[in-house]
Design a protein that fits this description.
single chain; alpha/beta; NAD(P)-bd_dom_sf; eight-stranded mixed β-sheet; globular
Length: 274
């Protein structure tokens, strides 16, 4: 009996590869919906370690635009309002990463009058941020003046203890990227720092000198922890994933090799019509 992996972030795929590699013989393929998970799959493919075909759903138009860009454009404001009741006008906001999620967040924050800065290591995305009217700076250059710091990179330890120590009193820190890895939470669990739960999903981290930062959702995804996701977006994403699973399962033997494939365009069109 054959099975397939439906993954978000590559965690299940990584776990099976590490703990139960024998199961891969019975797996027909992998369907992955996140930037981070797709990156991991391409790494496996490049190293020649990808044992089954994998479908990259994240880069399909339906998933990338509706979920990553348009949904995050709404949920970033919803999550921040629900947790902090903050006023956005005039606030200096640092958005780390200018992929689809970062673009959506920047667009929403700019529309409400926030002063938005962007950090980005990819030169093309950095150019896009610049052409869209945002100042592209290094994290260290703007961290002291930021009223909010939002991570949207899909990477690990983007904001580390050094940055957290330099933040101003009352700075709001949250993650819109991947899992709970973007903010270095381990460095915050020390005897010198005090954690104070203010309300559900909102913690004050207090430094010895009295400075405190506002951490949302304990570094987990803000949009999933503190806001609602439109049912339309959920249906689009779920349908796209289901069609990818069907495509891999019904594909004739030999159509898909042990590599990473983009979701066929006809599948993307089908998900929008359902």
């Amino acid at each position: 009996m054959f099975s397939e992996i439906l993954d978000d972030g590559g965690d299940l795929t990584h776990w099976i590869y590490k703990k139960y590699p024998s199961l891969l013989k019975r797996i027909r393929g992998i369907v992955e919906e996140s930037v981070t998970g797709v990156f991991r799959l391409y790494q496996l493919s490049k190293a020649g370690k990808l044992c089954v075909p994998a479908m990259n759903v994240n880069d399909s138009v339906t998933k990338q635009k509706f979920d990553n860009l348009y949904c995050c454009r709404e949920s970033i404001l919803d999550g921040l309002k629900r947790t902090t009741d903050v006023m956005f006008g005039g606030k200096q906001v640092l958005v780390c990463g200018y992929g689809e999620v970062g673009k959506g967040c920047c667009s929403a924050l700019k529309a409400l009058g926030a002063v938005v800065y962007v950090t980005e290591v990819d030169p093309i995305c950095a150019l896009q941020a610049c052409m869209d009217g945002f100042r592209v700076l290094k994290l260290s250059e703007v961290i002291r003046q930021a009223d909010m710091v939002i991570t949207c990179t899909g990477n690990k330890n983007v904001v580390v203890r050094e940055h957290l120590d330099r933040m101003k009193n009352g700075c709001i820190v949250c993650n819109m990227g991947h899992s709970n890895t973007e903010i270095d939470l381990v460095s915050l669990h020390t005897s010198e720092l005090k954690w104070e739960r203010v309300r559900p999903q909102v913690d004050h981290i207090i430094w010895p000198d009295g400075k405190r930062i506002v951490l949302l959702a304990e570094g987990r995804l803000l949009n999933l922890s503190c806001s609602t996701v439109p049912s339309f977006v959920l249906s689009i994403t779920a349908t796209t994933q289901a069609l990818a699973l069907i495509e891999l399962f019904n594909a004739p033997e030999g159509r898909y090799k042990q590599d990473v494939y983009l979701l066929p365009k006809k599948m993307g069109k089908s998900s929008r019509n359902l």
